[in-house]
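Lab notebook, bench 4. We co-purified these components, and the gel suggests they stay together. Before we commit to crystallization screens, I want a quick structural picture of the whole thing.
Request: model the full complex, all chains together.
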Amino acid sequence: MNPRMMLATSRRVLDQLRHDRRSIALILVVPALLLTAVYYLYENETLPPGVPRTFDRVGLMMLAIFPFVVMFLVTSITMLRERTSGTLERLLTTPIHKADLLFGYAIAFSIMAALQSLVATAVAYWIFDLDIKGSPGYVVMIAVINAVLGVALGLLCSAFARTEFQAVQFMPVVVVPQILLCGLFVARERMNDVLENISNVLPLTFSVEALKEIASNSEATRLMWDDATVIGIIVVGVLVLASLTLRRQTR
Amino acid sequence: MHQHTAEPAAVAPAVRASGLHVNRGRTKILRGLDFTIDAGRITGLLGPSGSGKTTLMRAIVGAQRPSSGTVTVLGKPAGAAALRHEVGYVTQSPSVYPDLSVEANVRYFGAMHGATAADTAEAIAAVGLEDFARQRTIDLSGGQLSRVSLACALVARPSLLVLDEPTVGLDPVLRAELWERFATMAAAGTTLLVSSHVMEEASHCSSLLLLREGLLMASLTPAELGERGHSVDLEQAFLHLIREAEGKPSRRNRNESQVA
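Here is the predicted assembly.
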């Protein structure tokens, strides 16, 4: 690992993004707009007293899901371009370590994800009065960890796509099952055994569980930290797998 | 460095290949090459398209693993980690980031070698793109783009520079300037391997490797090529050598190419 090469890579990736104002706008604004839509979807629901609004549950989970989905897409396309344009092969003839490249990417997109979740969380918290017991700072933290998860999976999946068209098709394969099974639509305890067991090993499940902990406890709980740690371990594992797909040599 | 041209054997070759084979799937791309490349010289790698020039260059920079045989670069096996500071590679299609400025591209590749801002500016000046430093490369012409790609290699100050068809798409003035630059670099001790399918460029090189269908037809100087091909026109000379080779069906390349 070489911090100079890693930070040069982060700077380069952000520099590329800086020239693409439309993408920046989409990354920052779209989650907040979708959150607004969710809020108005449930605007007229009638609830018995004491029962939390659906928005407090669904909106909160969406704060973690957005950065995951967006960063997965952005990363897999960017990395695929790097693979097909010849710049990756060129980079790998230089002294850069594969980890410098991957973590450089992860850092750059995490910064974007942090900004994105700051905007979305601020909208949820201040405009729509998102009602959670814990600190919104922890919500942003889980959102950023999720974004890094999206980056890691995007880096890995780009190895299995030859075109940008294929790369986008990986979203239904990798992302949608996690959203379906993370507990957003049906509580995990009420799933059948097969689905619950699959759900138990999907990374997004741990994020949703951590968010529920934040929502129902004013202090950070042990379970939340455990969940965050598990996602962190998965991220490192996926990044290691992704680095194996970067080959300096063609056989 | 020993620069006695009278006794070239005193200088260790920059590249030495022996029995180099490269297969991709069932296709035999390189079929047993043995050659050396002199240090501090310009060596031309010439041959028709599809003859294996790019694969050979990739084997030298370590991007292509040999199926058998060895390639030694600056005394180490090709692709060794220690060589990554020493070997520069410019691919045929410019491999730069189109959405970054010229300066940002050169700075990024320079960062892999600890280059300073002055080094970046120098590399950009070397390819004559000072006036375009802040422009995005996507807005440049094809010839300018390939010069950005070259600057990204120059910024590392490599001792071996491998250039795949660097003059394609350049106008005659730029081409002449580029060959002058290569000559200056060689005089300063850099080893250059330059591929081309334009035979007239062979005259700029101090020695030539002629590749055809994955086999080394000859390793000689431009003067020797003219002599053996019975023509001062190097293109004619090369064609003559090819016809000579084809006129002898006992050459193993005929048989092997039918197997593959």
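Chain A has one domain: 3-42+51-244. Worth comparing against the SEC data before the next meeting. The mean pLDDT of chain A is 90.
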